[in-house]
Amino acid sequence: MYRMTASIACAASLMACQHRGQPRQILVPPTLSGAPPVLDSKIAFTSNRDQLPEPKTFEPTEIYLMNGDGSDQRRLTKTDWNEGASDWAPNGTGIAFHSNKLCGAPWTGPCNKSGLFLMNAYDPGEQTLLTNLGQKDVGAELGAHFPAWSPDGQRLVFNSWANVDGTGIKPPQTRDIFVINVDGTGLTNLTQHIKMKGRGSTADILADDFRPDWSPDGRKIAFTTTRDGNLEIYLMNADGTGPTRLTNNTASDRGPKWSPDGTKIAFESNRDGNWEIYVMNATDGSGQITRPGHRTAG
Questions:
Q1: Which of 106, 180, 182, 240 is deepest in the core (most CB within 10 A)?
Q2: Integer Cα distance of 53 and 2 in angstroms
Q3: Would 151 be classed as within a structural domain?
Q4: Residue 115 domain-assigned?
Q5: Same domain as 167, residue 298
Q6: What is the pLDDT of residues 27-86, one digit of tens each?
Q7: What is the spatial distance between Cα 146 and Cα 98, in angstroms, rounded to a whole number?
Q8: Cα–Cα distance measured from residue 227 to residue 224, given in angstroms and rounded to the nearest whole number
Q9: 136-178 confidence digits (pLDDT tens)
Q10: How many domains does the chain have?
């Protein structure tokens, strides 16, 4: 059975719609819709339905597009490598995603090189490598994943293992949160290799910061971090200042996503013994619930 993961639902889903607060028009070219531009609902998702035949050691995934009712499913990326974490641009036509297609072809096994790419959902053949610093091999070695658009469509926030000075990836391989302009300029490390206290006689080690998401008003970024010893959700200003802890328990909390009105954050947690979706207030992390009537400690 193939695996399919819906990544972004536009103008249809409460938590995934990229417009901030109300539905928006997605203008679909007449050549694709068969009619003049109309209010349309599209979902970009990741699937391994076209994976390579057995035997293989991993299942490459591609990005697909479908209507909000599940019809007209079409493949957007066509490589033998992993493409995923698609995120719609605020204008409803662009998609950012991560891919390890920098490894080249043909497929010979797993590859750790990954970069961020931009493409037009209605002209997917035109794809741009965003995380290319203009330095030899650095773009390929960024290990960039999980892009999220700023509300104005001018920047992307993402996580990466790399050093911004062009020296590539150095052990220990922990991630930081970066922002970059859509023209490839302005690459900035927001979390700056924050250290976490070692346990017992263990020396301090770098925290792992990843899976960021931009607030609807553009002022805050929510992200996952290990700086307290386990996976927790933090909030910080868009310039990296003022980090604030939102979740506080011994379980793992990860993958924050803002609601369109900016008042709630959805996230994943295994605090009840298995992975479930939780929702909390975005300002202070209060009111954490996994289903109506079921509240849990932060």
A1: 180
A2: 12
A3: no
A4: yes
A5: yes
A6: 333 333 343 333 368 889 988 887 766 555 556 788 889 998 889 998 888 876 778 888
A7: 6
A8: 9
A9: 444 445 578 899 999 999 999 998 876 655 455 554 567 889 9
A10: 2
- Is there a single domain that holds both residue 3 and residue 125? yes
Residue-level pLDDT at 17: 37
Contacts of 251 (CB under 8 A, 6+ apart): 230, 269, 270, 271
Read off the pLDDT of residues 208-227 as tens digits, 9 standing for 90 and up. Answer: 899 999 999 999 999 999 98
For the segment 108-118, what is each residue's pLDDT rounded down to a tens digit? 665 667 788 89
Q: Distance of alpha carbon 147 from its chain centroid, rounded?
A: 4
Amino acid at 206: L
Provide the pLDDT for residue 292.
57
Residue 179 belongs to some domain of the structure: no
Burial group, residue 26, by CB count within 10 angstroms (0-12, 13-18, 19+) = buried
Q: What does DSSP say about strands 220-225 and 232-237: parallel, antiparallel, or unpaired?
A: antiparallel
One domain for residues 97 and 170: no
The domain that holds 209 is classified in CATH as: 2.120.10.30
How far from each other are the two terminal CA atoms of the chain, in whole angstroms?
36
